[in-house]
Design brief:
Blueprint: H1 2-20, H2 23-29, H3 35-59, H4 66-76, H5 80-109, H6 114-128, H7 132-152, H8 156-175, H9 182-205
Length: 212
């Protein structure tokens, strides 16, 4: 984990330098965010995680992907401080700078439709995880974060939602020592679906703050 943290930190400096070369991106990093929007997107991240986790649990497909279970076991046995620095802080910043801040923005420069740019960068983001099961939901996360980035016009937005998502994942992996009964999980899943629909409808009505 320490080696991964060091290498990811190195990539952070490189990706930040590439990101800064684009003057438009520098303007975006200065953009403030509406606090209400921050609360909404962190709640969306929580609901999104529950929906994906429930789907994986019901389908019981994780057992068919040893590399995914191995990654979960590695995270569970890792030092919590190093894990948070790697998976919750530095990792999301690096990935959002690269995939939303650089790849997504470069794709938009090619005059393709926004929805195509969203899909392409999300697929590349999924492939980057080098794990079939993780790649599937990483694509969904990539679509979600690109959508929010496009709306907020600041790289801070996808970083916040990515950090929130990973934080919930780390908490569950590290501290959940028992399985939630399926009926209870089903109720939580249902509430999450209703909540994410409500949150999205509310979020779409919100306006991002202008640059200062």
């Amino acid at each position: 984990m320490l080696i991964s943290l060091i290498s990811t930190t190195t990539v952070l400096f490189i990706s930040w330098k590439v990101f800064k070369k684009d003057q438009k991106n520098i303007e975006k990093i200065k953009t403030k965010m509406n606090w209400k929007n921050i609360l909404i997107i962190t709640s969306i991240a929580a609901c999104f995680y529950i929906i994906i986790e429930f789907s994986l649990t019901v389908m019981n497909i994780a057992k068919y992907f040893p590399s995914y279970e191995g990654m979960t076991l590695l995270f569970k046995n890792s030092n919590i401080i190093l894990l948070i620095l790697y998976a919750v802080v530095i990792g999301p910043i690096v990935e959002e700078l690269i995939f939303r801040g650089i790849v997504f923005n470069r794709l938009k420069e090619y005059n393709i439709k926004i929805w195509m740019a969203v899909i392409i960068q999300a697929v590349i983001f999924g492939i980057e995880h080098l794990n079939i099961l993780q790649s599937i939901y990483a694509i969904l996360v990539g679509i979600l974060t690109a959508f929010i980035y496009q709306k907020e016009k600041t790289i801070l937005a996808p970083i916040i939602i990515h950090m929130s998502y990973n934080l919930i994942s780390v908490i569950i992996i590290q501290f959940a020592n028992y399985e939630i009964p399926l009926p209870v999980f089903s109720v939580i899943f249902g509430l999450s679906v209703v909540s994410i629909i409500f949150l999205f409808s509310n979020y779409l009505k919100q306006k991002p703050l202008e640059n200062v």
